[in-house]
C-alpha cells in the first residue's frame, strides 16, 4: 500500500534519525522512565557480525561452513524469520519481510526445518545466529494471506485480540518530537502493538523463546525506538537462556537525533544499541573532500568534530545497513573501493561491535532479493544479483582478533592516507588516492617479516620498529603479530 511506500522513502528508515516532519511547537513529550539495570535479560554482542541480508536459510548455512566459520566471524544477523505479508502486486519488495502476519517460522527464505538446519550448520562452524525481530507492529495491509498461508486482517492475527492488543491512535506518526505519538501511533500505517499489555508481552516473548529453542543466540530488535524501553525490558525479562546457557544477545535499533525526546540511553540497561552516527561520520570523512583527520578518536569523544558516541561495549556499528544504504547517508557497495576501505577501517579500529553488511543488487528503493515468479528467494550466487561484499573484509577478521583491545597509537593522516598502530599488536594503513603511496612509519612492532592480511605481501619491520609501506591505490594494509 502507498503508506508503506512512504515508509520506504523516509518515515521509518530516515525519519527516526532526522528525516521527519517538522516538530509541532505545541508538542508536549512525556517523560519515559529508564528501566532498571536489574531487569536486563540480554548481553551485548562481541566479535565480528555479518549481516546476510535476505539470504535464504540454506545459503546462510553454506556461507557459515565455507566462509564465515573459517574466517573467525562470531555471528550472522539474519532477516526476520517469521511469517510475513506477500506483496506480489508490488514486486515482492524487501520490506514485506518487516510486516509480520504470524510468528510461524515460514518466510520466503525457508520453512522451520530449513531454519533449524541452518542454525545447526552455523553452530557447527562456530558461528552464532542473531535474528532480526519485529516486535513493534504487524502489517499495514487491510487483509491478505501470509507467506506461510495464514489469513489476516489489519488487527486480526493469530494469538492477538484486535480490539485490545493494538493501539488505536487513529493516525500515523508525523511528529517525532512527541514521545507518545512515536511510541503509540502507527508507524506509516503499520498496526501498532500495545506492548504495555501483558498478553502482548507474553505473545512476543513466546515467539522469541521459540527462536531460542531452535538455537538462536540473540536478537536485533527492529524499530526499538517505537516501543517504550520499559515495555521491552518487561519482554526481555521473560526470555529463556540460549542453548549454551547464557543470556541472549540483544542489540536494539534506536535511531535518534539529539533533539528528540527518545534517546538510546533509555535502552542501554537492557542490551546494546545500534550507533546510527558512525556510518554517516565515516562516509563524510572518506568521501572526496572529507577529512581523514576526523576519524582520529572516533567513538571516544575526543575526535574532531566531537561526537558523544555510546560506550564502545554497548554499541553496534556499521558502514551501511539495509536501511541506510537506501537513504544516501552512508557508503554502499555502489561506492566500490571506498565502501571496502570504510569496512576495513571499521574492523581495524577499536570502537564498537562491527556489523558487516552483505547486500543484494538493487536499482530501486523497493527492490527485493533475487526471487522466482512466486517471490521465493533464490539461492545466493555471488555476482549474480548478490553483492557478497562481506567477503572482501573476511581477511580483516583475523587482524581484529589478533589486536584485541590494544589501544590506537602512532596515528597519522595526510589528505588521502591514514595509518595507526594497535599498540604492540598490529598496524593498519589505508590510501583512498588513485595512485599507490610509499611512506615510512613507526609500527611499534618487533623486528621481523610480516604478512599483510589484505594482499598477502611481505612487510619488513626493522630493529627500530619502522617499516616502509607501499599502500596500493584505494586499498589498505594490515599486519599483526600473528601474521609475522
TrEMBL record:
Cofactors: Ca(2+)
Catalytic activity field: Endohydrolysis of (1->4)-alpha-D-glucosidic linkages in polysaccharides containing three or more (1->4)-alpha-linked D-glucose units
Domain Glycosyl hydrolase family 13 catalytic: 47-400
Signal peptide bounds: 1-21
InterPro entries xref list: A-amylase/branching_C, A-amylase_C, Alpha_amylase, GH, GH13_cat_dom, Glyco_hydro_b
Superkingdom as given in the UniProt entry: Bacteria
Ranges of residues in domain Alpha-amylase C-terminal: 409-484
E.C. number(s) listed in UniProt: 3.2.1.1
Enzyme class: hydrolase
Sorted UniProt keywords: Calcium, Carbohydrate metabolism, Glycosidase, Hydrolase, Metal-binding, Signal
SMART domains hit by this protein: Aamy, Aamy_C
Gene3D superfamilies documented for this protein: Glycosidases (3.20.20.80), Golgi alpha-mannosidase II (2.60.40.1180)
Keyword field contains Hydrolase: yes
Stated family: Belongs to the glycosyl hydrolase 13 family.
Name of the protein: Alpha-amylase
Organism, as annotated: Hamadaea flava
Amino acid at each position: 500500500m502507498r503508506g508503506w511506500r512512504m515508509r520506504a522513502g523516509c518515515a521509518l528508515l530516515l525519519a527516526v534519525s532526522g528525516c521527519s516532519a517538522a516538530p509541532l511547537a505545541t508538542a508536549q513529550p512525556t517523560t519515559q522512565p529508564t528501566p532498571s539495570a536489574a531487569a536486563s535479560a540480554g548481553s551485548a554482542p562481541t566479535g565480528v557480525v555479518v549481516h546476510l541480508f535476505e539470504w535464504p536459510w540454506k545459503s546462510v548455512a553454506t556461507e557459515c561452513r565455507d566462509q564465515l566459520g573459517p574466517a573467525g566471524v562470531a555471528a550472522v544477523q539474519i532477516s526476520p524469520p517469521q511469517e510475513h505479508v506477500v506483496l506480489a502486486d508490488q514486486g515482492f519488495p524487501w520490506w514485506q519481510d518487516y510486516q509480520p502476519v504470524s510468528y510461524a517460522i515460514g518466510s520466503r527464505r525457508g520453512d522451520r526445518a530449513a531454519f533449524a538446519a541452518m542454525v545447526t550448520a552455523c553452530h557447527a562452524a562456530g558461528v552464532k545466529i542473531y535474528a532480526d525481530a519485529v516486535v513493534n507492529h504487524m502489517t499495514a495491509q487491510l487483509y491478505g494471506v501470509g507467506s506461510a498461508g495464514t489469513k489476516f486482517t489489519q488487527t486480526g492475527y493469530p494469538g492477538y485480540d484486535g480490539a485490545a492488543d493494538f493501539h488505536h491512535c487513529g493516525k500515523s506518526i508525523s511528529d517525532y518530537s512527541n514521545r507518545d505519538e512515536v511510541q503509540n501511533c502507527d508507524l506509516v500505517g503499520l498496526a501498532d502493538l500495545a506492548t504495555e499489555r501483558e498478553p502482548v508481552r507474553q505473545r512476543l516473548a513466546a515467539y522469541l523463546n521459540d527462536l531460542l529453542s531452535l538455537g538462536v543466540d540473540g536478537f536485533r530488535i527492529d524499530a526499538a525506538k517505537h516501543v517504550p524501553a520499559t515495555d521491552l525490558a518487561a519482554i526481555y525479562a521473560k526470555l529463556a537462556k540460549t542453548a549454551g546457557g547464557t543470556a541472549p544477545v540483544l542489540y536494539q535499533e534506536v535511531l535518534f537525533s539529539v533533539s528528540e525526546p527518545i534517546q538510546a540511553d533509555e535502552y542501554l540497561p537492557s542490551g546494546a544499541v545500534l550507533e546510527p552516527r558512525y556510518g554517516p561520520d565515516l562516509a563524510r570523512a572518506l568521501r572526496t573532500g572529507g577529512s581523514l583527520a576526523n576519524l582520529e578518536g572516533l567513538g571516544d569523544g575526543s575526535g574532531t568534530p566531537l561526537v558523544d558516541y555510546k560506550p564502545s561495549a554497548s554499541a553496534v556499528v556499521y558502514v551501511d545497513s539495509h536501511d541506510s544504504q537506501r537513504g544516501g547517508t552512508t557508503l554502499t557497495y555502489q561506492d566500490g573501493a571506498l565502501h571496502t576501505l570504510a569496512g576495513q577501517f571499521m574492523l581495524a579500529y577499536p570502537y564498537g561491535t562491527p556489523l558487516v553488511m552483505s547486500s543484494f543488487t538493487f536499482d530501486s528503493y523497493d527492490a527485493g532479493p533475487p526471487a522466482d515468479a512466486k517471490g521465493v528467494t533464490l539461492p545466493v550466487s555471488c555476482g549474480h544479483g548478490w553483492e557478497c561484499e562481506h567477503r572482501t573484509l573476511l581477511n580483516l577478521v583475523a587482524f581484529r582478533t589478533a589486536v584485541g583491545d590494544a589501544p590506537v597509537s602512532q596515528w597519522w593522516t595526510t589528505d588521502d592516507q591514514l595509518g595507526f598502530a594497535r599498540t604492540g599488536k598490529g598496524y593498519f594503513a589505508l590510501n583512498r588516492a588513485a595512485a599507490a603511496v610509499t611512506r615510512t612509519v613507526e609500527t611499534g612492532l618487533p623486528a621481523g617479516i610480516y604478512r599483510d592480511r589484505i594482499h598477502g605481501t611481505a612487510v619488513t619491520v626493522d630493529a627500530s620498529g619502522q617499516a616502509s609501506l607501499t599502500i596500493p591505490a584505494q586499498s589498505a594494509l594490515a599486519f599483526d603479530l600473528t601474521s609475522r
